[in-house]
Amino acid sequence: MPSSPSAGSMAEHAYRELRARIIDLRLPPGTALDEDGLRGELGVGRTPMREAVKRLEAERMVQVYPRRGTIVTEVSLLDLRAISDARRVMEAYAARTAAGRLGEADRARFADLLERIPAAAQVPPAQAMAFDREVHQVIWAVMRNPYLEDTLGHYFDVALRLWNYVLDRIPPMHANVAEHADLLHAILDGDGETAGRLAEEHVTHFETLVRASL
């Protein structure tokens, strides 16, 4: 007979599902969480839900207020600036580091991404952002630093929530996707200085696009 899921696995399930809903705006900024309803929907108890909410609060995705309950945090220009400042430093470091650690298998993955850029630059924004994330993930993986990779993934997701918030107001992302080509070529050439600068500029371009639409 299969064993029941542990409290830890149920808390992880609740955390991941709620986080995904906050990022893709199924739970929009300012939403009060109906924890009773969500527990029933997700099939988890009070303790796993409480643990999930604590993790989300630590990530500043929700705020718990006495007598008011748990509220999904708002998005703001201050958030955008702080997130972008952090990403500029880390993405630049990731690109510089990747330029010095690229292996043959990594080169094959970069070549595949470069071949797909022209088509990815023409797809709808949501698909373009999925490709954008894939490019970043490939670069992060080359660092061989799982701790920083996890941190970069977290900040990308937080930035993605801001992007989803303005999705219906942003212009086409053709140029934003196409600029990955120069970044990937710089890493392939082992030019860490140029790669770091281009990664930083890419984050700035993203910030400018979102800022203009908030």
Top keywords for this entry?
214 residues, mainly alpha, two-stranded antiparallel sheet, 2 strands, 4% strand
Can you walk through the features of this model?
- Strand 1 (62-65) and strand 2 form a beta hairpin.
- The protein is mainly α.
- The mean pLDDT is 93.
- It has a two-stranded antiparallel ribbon with strand order 1-2.
- It is 71% helix and 4% strand.
In short:
This protein is mainly α.
Helix content: over 70%
Work out the helix count: 10
C-alpha-based Rg, rounded: 19 Å
Largest sheet: 2 strands, antiparallel
Overall pLDDT score: 93
| Structural category | mainly alpha
Going across the major beta sheet, what is the strand order? 1-2
What's the shape?
globular
Secondary structure tally: strands = 2
Distance between the amino and carboxyl termini = 53 Å
